């Protein structure tokens, strides 16, 4: 058992590969992104096990806790420690008593229900009743912000350039300057890591926007709205449910963000 956080070097490995070009083959080595089981443990109780790239796990734990409503403020989480085991990682956290009691009550309410594959929800009835955060009036994108953010993000996707296998989530100012980037094999994990990183730096979620290198799914919009992020841009398409949630939550959802082209699916008043 080892303690500590993984670095970028731990997030990928070298593997032998036979590379075919036409009828010829060359044996070489390739950089491959790693993913490991990560258990999120609160006050000694395991709450969830997620497959994640083993870097920035403290950010992941904080972001997940915020975006899933386990805590309302990162300061309600104490003593975060990453523990390495033979088959994965544990992120051990201590919650304030009131928050931990609320989490345990939520888990008891879900006992015995059939899972439907959505984080924190174990029945269709719960899905229908899940609250949607509502974003009020906030900042707007400046002209050229999306183009600038795309350009800067391309130079900051270090693990992607090594492996080609991970998504990135970028925290951008409204002028398009990229301030933080987090990467993971899972797009939701990348966003949770970014949310945790923004919270760790005490930045306001209302002072910028998120750029994702993936499609915009329901969970991406839900997580963004939960912490007060008003603008989500993605390089690929949104889903219909993502659009509906964005409309209801007051989130500006932008898809197909590629070069000077983009499509605004909800609340276009923030895009100039």
The largest pleated sheet is described as: 6 strands, mixed
Strand-pairing-aware structural class: alpha+beta
CATH class wording of the largest domain:
Alpha Beta
Beta-strand percentage range? 25-35%
Assembly state: single chain
- Put simply, the count of helices is 8
Q: Rg, please?
A: 19 Å
Distance between the termini: 52 Å
CATH topology of the largest domain: Cytidine Deaminase, domain 2
- Give the ordered list of helices and strands: EEEEEHEEHHHHEEHEHEHEE
CATH superfamily of the largest domain: Cytidine Deaminase, domain 2
The coarse silhouette is globular
Which ranges are low-confidence, i.e. pLDDT below 50, for 5 or more consecutive residues?
Answer: 1-5, 110-118
Write up this protein.
This protein is α+β, with helices and mostly antiparallel strands and 272 residues long. It has 2 domains: 36-129, Ubiquitin-like (UB roll) (Roll), CATH 3.10.20.10; 145-270, Cytidine Deaminase, domain 2, CATH 3.40.140. The protein is built from 8 helices and 13 strands. Helix 1 crosses helix 6 (187-200) and helix 7 runs parallel beside helix 8 (240-249). The longest helix is centred in the middle third of the chain and has 14 residues, at 97-110.
How is this fold's topology laid out?
Blueprint: E1 2-3, E2 12-21, E3 24-33, E4 36-42, E5 45-52, H1 57-67, E6 77-85, E7 88-95, H2 97-110, H3 124-129, H4 145-154, H5 158-163, E8 167-173, E9 178-184, H6 187-200, E10 208-212, H7 218-227, E11 231-234, H8 240-249, E12 252-258, E13 261-264
Parallel strand pairs: 4-7, 10-11, 11-12
Antiparallel strand pairs: 1-6, 2-3, 4-5, 6-7, 8-9, 8-10, 12-13
